[in-house]
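Provenance

Sequences were taken from public entries as deposited. Structures were produced by running a predictor on each sequence independently, with no templates supplied. The record for Ultraviolet-B receptor UVR8 from Musca domestica is shown for reference.
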Amino acid sequence: MEGGTESIACNYNVDHLATSDIKHNEKRWLACGFNQFGQLSKFHDERIIRYFKEIDVRATHLISSWSYVAAANGCSLQIRGLINSRTKSEKLIKAENEIKCLAGCDRYCLILLNNGTVYKYGIQCEDGLKEVIFQSNESFTPKNKSIFGKTTSACASKVKIEKIACGNNIMIALGLSNEVFTGTTQVHCFPKHVRSKQLVCGFEHALMLTHNGDIYAWGNGLRGQLGLGVIGVEEKPVLIEAIAGIKIICIAAAGWHSAAISAFGDIYTWGFNSNGQLGIKMYKNCTIKEPAIYVVPQVVDIMELTCCDNKEQDCFPTKIATGARHTMVEMNCGAVYAAGWNAYGQLGLPNNELYTDHFQYVLKFKNCKDNVEIVSGSWNTLIGTRESSKREINENI
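Predicted structure for Ultraviolet-B receptor UVR8:
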């Protein structure tokens, strides 16, 4: 990256960073939730943004943590919020190659470039940028016999990375040759026929979705977030048998819970349900406490489908996103539903309920096919779109 481990402070918005050849990929972003450090918008003075409002960000890639938001366009990355113990701060980072994706936790932001290189930026330290080196483990390298019958294997070498994800206590990377890294240590290598589609992390666990629709889980599962039917820790990826054979199209993980959507339009959630984030009732008959931990995926219904005027229209979930203690679901019609903790308005609901333990309608987008992206931070939610939200328009007329 330019300047080695140095970053450059900036005082202008992300939309000014984009070059003309990537403008068409930008999304406008709506946000709600925790804004104590100006991470959502420096132009909104509210500590809490209760309802979805458009913010001053135009970005192709965006992540949100408890204390900062990072937005990327092309080779440019802007981070704003609580940086080096200073609120409403901004940092501009220029990359040597186009940014492919971002991942972040409270302490650092990971930056994956198109050339397979990963950089790490410490949010609350002065270390600046550092390249993260992943080296293959010889024990996982395929061994071949030479013409003389001797077994040979390749030496450990720097690995190009395809996907990254991280949480407060875990960092995961997938190499181009199916290597799996926890931190910078290789823990597994998938066979060639297993190809990853999506990689996500909670505070201390990871999920990987394959193109076949299977989910693998590993990390800390002491709150049932691995979905393996037991409470424990797995050092390497393990297939979630409970939903093996059901084609999953989207996964999400955050905090201590996990979620998925099947090709049939079913929502599955598992893990910690402390604030109704699984969309499962916390009390039976309003008095009897239900379990707080679910160790296998549970099918969850959206009880009140109020998003479509046409009752004959078949509405079903297509995407899902999770925050520390909340879950957001996008429907094929463009509607967004939410469940879980709402202390900071992170659900965007038109009420001040502390939590909701069932999915409630939030807002709806028009002509949204493949244009809407939901990003859930720990205590906030951002929605990127090229279209207009009905609720946003109606509330501001």
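Confidence is low (pLDDT under 50) at residues 1-22, 391-397.
The radius of gyration is 21 Å.
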